[in-house]
Design a protein that fits this description.
29% of the residues lie in helices and 24% in strands. With 483 residues, the chain is α/β, with parallel strands linked by helices. It folds into two domains: 313 residues, Zn peptidases (Aminopeptidase, 3-Layer(aba) Sandwich); 146 residues, Glucose Oxidase, domain 1 (3-Layer(bba) Sandwich), CATH 3.50.30. Strands 2, 3, 4, 5, 6, 7, 8, 9, 10, 11, 12, 13, 14 and 15 form a 14-stranded mixed sheet that branches. Strands 1-17-16 form a three-stranded antiparallel sheet, with no helix packed on it. The protein starts with a helix and ends with a helix.
C-alpha cells in the first residue's frame, strides 16, 4: 500500500464523511453577521478556490503566489467585494523568490544505492538554491536551533534538521548555512512530505545550497543509519531560477464607519507550493469574505477594513509589507486586527490565542475575552493557548501588527500541533479525535484540498461542523468590534 493511500485512509477515519448540498443562499444580513453565516455559502467559496487550484498550469493543484491559482483567487474576492459596494484596492507587493525546476535528483550513493522519489520522499523548499553536490550526511549535535549545535560540523557536508514546535525553521536553516552546510534536509514529524519555504535574509544567501523538505520516513531512515555507525553519502542535484515576482494584497473598506477608528480583519490567500491550501488558508479567506458580504448592508460605527494577504507562506511578506508602508498616524487609527487561520481542521479544536506581557499589545486581552464569552454563550468548549505555543504569534499575519503595537485577536483549529490527552479532557463536545495525530493532518501536504463530485462534497480534510462554529465566532468578533 502506498504512503498516499495510507494517509487517505487515516484521514477518512478521523471524521464521519459529510455530504452537503451547496445550493447558493443569498448573502443578505441586517443584524449580527454570525447569525446569518451558512455552511452552504462558505463551501461555495471553497469550491471556487479549489477550481482555481485545479486550473493552475504553472503549479498544478496550487494557489501559490504569482501563479494563475493565486491570481484567480484574488480576482474572485476583489470582484465579490466590489459588487457588494466596498472600496477595493490591490496593493503591489514585490518579492524575490527562487524556484527549483525539474528534473531534480536526490539519492543515496553509499553505503546503499537508493533513489528518493520527488514529492513523495522529498520536495525542494521555496527559496532553495541549486547545485550538483555529493557529500556525507552529518547531523547537528542538537536540533539545529542553536548555532552551537554545529560546533563540530564539517564544512561541505550535508545536514539533516528535524524540527519540532520549539524552533523556527528559518533560524535552523540559517544556522546550517553559517556552519558551512552545502545541502540541507528539513523534516517534520508526520506522514508524507510537508511543503514549505523559507525567507532568507538575503536572496543570494542560499543560491548554491540545495534545501529540501523530507518525509519523516526518509529522515528517520537516514538518522538510523548514522546511529548504527554508518555515514550515508548523498547526491543532490537541483537547478534553481531566482526572480522578482509581482503579487498583490487585497484591501477593501466599508463605505461607512469612523475612519479614525478602524477594525481590520485579515487572512492569507496563498497556498504553499505543493497543495491547494483549502484549510490553510482558503477556509479563513472564505470566512472573511462571507463575513464582509453579510455586513454589506450594515453601517458600522468603526471603519471596517478587510485584507487578504499574499506571500504568507513565504514568510508573512504581504502583511509585513502592508504594515511597513503605513505611517505612524495610519497605524494609530487601527483599533484592532483580527486574524484567522485553518478554521476547519478535522482533528482540531476551538483554539483562541491568549495574551502575554511583552508579546501581545495591550488591548488584545479584550479580543481573547470576546471569543471566550462567545463560545461560552453557545455552550462550546474552547482552549486559550499561550502565544508562544508552536511560535504561533510569530507565524501568522498578525505578527507585523503586534510589532506595531496594535491589539490583535487570533483563532485557529490547529496545524501541526498534535491532538493530546489535554485536548481530550477539554473538548468533550467534539467527535473522537486521534491522539498523537496532527490537529490538521494535511497541513502543508498535497491532501489539503477538496474532494468533490458534482454539487456534493465528501471531504475528510474538514470538520464542517467545527468550521461553521469557528466562522460564526469570527463573524461575531468582526461585528461586535465594528459596532
Amino acid at each position: 500500500m502506498t504512503k498516499h493511500n495510507t494517509l487517505t485512509k487515516l484521514l477518512i477515519s478521523l471524521c464521519t464523511p459529510l455530504l452537503l448540498n451547496t445550493t447558493s443562499i443569498a448573502a443578505e444580513c441586517n443584524h449580527n453577521a454570525s447569525e446569518c453565516m451558512t455552511l452552504s455559502n462558505l463551501v461555495n467559496h471553497l469550491k471556487a478556490f479549489q477550481q482555481f487550484a485545479d486550473n493552475n498550469s504553472e503549479l498544478p493543484g496550487t494557489r501559490f503566489v504569482s501563479t494563475s491559482g493565486y491570481d484567480e483567487t484574488r480576482d474572485y474576492i476583489a470582484k465579490k467585494m466590489r459588487d457588494a459596494g466596498y472600496q477595493v484596492s490591490l496593493q503591489d507587493v514585490p518579492m524575490d523568490i527562487t524556484y527549483v525546476t525539474s528534473p531534480r535528483i536526490v539519492e543515496q550513493v553509499t553505503p546503499d544505492v537508493k533513489t528518493y522519489q520527488d514529492n513523495i520522499d522529498y520536495a525542494p523548499i521555496v527559496n532553495s538554491g541549486g547545485a550538483d553536490i555529493t557529500a556525507a550526511l552529518q547531523l547537528p549535535a542538537g536540533d539545529g536551533c542553536n548555532a552551537s549545535d554545529y560546533s563540530a560540523f564539517k564544512s561541505g557536508n550535508i545536514t539533516l534538521i528535524q524540527i519540532g514546535d520549539h524552533c523556527d525553521r528559518n533560524v535552523a536553516i540559517q544556522n546550517a548555512i553559517e556552519a558551512g552546510a552545502k545541502g540541507i534536509i528539513v523534516s517534520y514529524r508526520g506522514l508524507g512530505v510537508r511543503y514549505m519555504g523559507w525567507n532568507p535574509a538575503s536572496p543570494t544567501i542560499s543560491e548554491n545550497i540545495p534545501i529540501l523538505a523530507s518525509s519523516n520516513e526518509m529522515a528517520n531512515e537516514l538518522k538510523q543509519a548514522i546511529a548504527s555507525g554508518i555515514t550515508p553519502k548523498l547526491h543532490i542535484q537541483f537547478k534553481a531560477v531566482r526572480k522578482t515576482i509581482p503579487s498583490h494584497n487585497i484591501i477593501a473598506e466599508s463605505q461607512g464607519g469612523d475612519p479614525n477608528h478602524v477594525v481590520m480583519v485579515g487572512a492569507h490567500i496563498d497556498s504553499s507550493h505543493g497543495n491547494a491550501g483549502m484549510n490553510d488558508n482558503a477556509s479563513s479567506a472564505a470566512t472573511v469574505l462571507e463575513t464582509a458580504l453579510l455586513m454589506k448592508n450594515i453601517t458600522p460605527m468603526k471603519k471596517l477594513r478587510f485584507a487578504w494577504w499574499t506571500g504568507e507562506e513565504l514568510g508573512l511578506i504581504g502583511s509585513n509589507y502592508y504594515v511597513e508602508h503605513l505611517s505612524q498616524a495610519e497605524k494609530s487609527k487601527i483599533a484592532v486586527y483580527l486574524n484567522f487561520e485553518v478554521l476547519g481542521a478535522p482533528n482540531g479544536g476551538r483554539m483562541i490565542m491568549g495574551t502575554s506581557d511583552g508579546v501581545t499589545p495591550k488591548g488584545s486581552e479584550k479580543i481573547t475575552q470576546l471569543y471566550v464569552d462567545y463560545f461560552k454563550s453557545k455552550n462550546l468548549k474552547y482552549y486559550v493557548f499561550d502565544p508562544a505555543l508552536a511560535n504561533a504569534a510569530r507565524r501568522s499575519d498578525m505578527f507585523a501588527f503586534m510589532n506595531a503595537g496594535i491589539p490583535v485577536g487570533f483563532i485557529i483549529t490547529g496545524a501541526e500541533l498534535p491532538w493530546n490527552p489535554l485536548f481530550d479532557s477539554i473538548f468533550t463536545d467534539l467527535p473522537k479525535r486521534v491522539n498523537g495525530l496532527d490537529t490538521h493532518p494535511c497541513y502543508h501536504k498535497a491532501c489539503d484540498k477538496l474532494t468533490m463530485s458534482g454539487d456534493e462534497i465528501h471531504d475528510a480534510n474538514f470538520d464542517f461542523d467545527l468550521y461553521l462554529q469557528m466562522s460564526k465566532a469570527a463573524a461575531h468578533a468582526v461585528y461586535t468590534s465594528a459596532m
